[in-house]
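agent: user wants the full assembly modeled, not chains individually. Plan: 1) parse entity lines 2) check alphabet per entity 3) run joint structure prediction 4) return tokens. Steps 1-2 passed, two entities, 403 residues total. Proceeding.
--- entities ---
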Amino acid sequence: MTRIGCWVVAHLTRLLNDDEREVVRGDLAECHTPTGRALREVIGLIARRQLEPWCSWRPWFMLVALVIPIGFLLSHAARSWAINAASDVWIYSRFWDFSYLAVPGWRRDVIGAAVRMASGCLALIGWSWTCGFVLGRFSRQTVWLTVSMLTLVVFLGTLGTSTVGQPPENSSLVYHVGFVVLPRFFRTFLVVLPLACGAYRGSNVTSLSLGRTFLGVIVLASATLLVSQGLERSLTFGRGVLPADKGPDGIVVTADDPRPLWFLSLVMMWPAAYALTEAIGSRSASSGAAGGAHSRSR
Amino acid sequence: MQLGEFEYLMLTAVARLGDDAYGVAIRQEIEDATGRPCSLGALYTTIDRLELKGLIKTSMGDPTPQRGGRPKRMVRITTKGTQAASEFYNAVMRVSRGVAWSSTK
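--- prediction returned ---
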């Protein structure tokens, strides 16, 4: 094997587990395998090892139940809320006046916008983290592939759609920041980063603390309740899955609009519910084991 | 226990090699017997599958200089493996009875 061949094989075999890496490199050295064949052999083995976990139902279930539906919703929600946040920040920073805080009606609007933005960010982080956690738990061996797929869905889920009827002809810097940069920022820092952290935690930590998980789920459920209509609208206005219904008052985006997509919040919450169920299960198991040990010691 | 053709070939190679059964030697045996190349991927994934079925046991051998100081993965057939290979062989013998396959081309 040439020196470059040895270097490439050494790096490729890092994808194998420690024991197998040593054995395979030993086999190639013992047989004096030529570079081309060695590369083919190693790539073949790595491909088989990577595909092995896909023989199980778990990664497929994750794809169908989580990666595609939740990734798609996260993609639309992140874009929609980034644009809303950009609009709010732009309007208030451009026309800021302290009377906004003095007049009760205006103050309510400012607080509403701030709460909306904070809840949206919190919900995106929470949903993404729990998704990563479930991906790590369900299929440890395929976790980084499923996380990559989810990331791809998050970034490409809104492709070919827009939240505006017609973009302005001369795209200004404000438009570029609000409609292009901020959605990417939201997707990267509020979705992909927590997703990766959750996946790391899901594949490494043995059990979750019940208290923290319970508190986290309560906070996430509250944030989800606050942003549930926004989530539904991100799909109605961002994808046009359903025509916007004005409701009895004849005005869109008001409290009386019908909500045929109400179940989307439940879809977003199932990974959190799974994490809570698991935390409860591991608490019961550990208290059962402690009880057993206590009775044995008596 | 149901065996595939390649699994049977591997069990037979392991049984024939005895204490000297490890990756390179098993691969050589199979290639010599079939005349077809045997890839590392097929070899090691089949070894894992057979071990999971309890038909073989593997262990890490000592490092050797000709392997660049790296260990071998030694393979040993279990009683269950011997029985499974024997059943496969008997089935092939039974089904071949009365059929005159030519032994050479």
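agent: reporting back. Helices of chain B lie at 5-17, 23-34, 40-52, 79-96. The longest helix of chain B spans residues 79-96.
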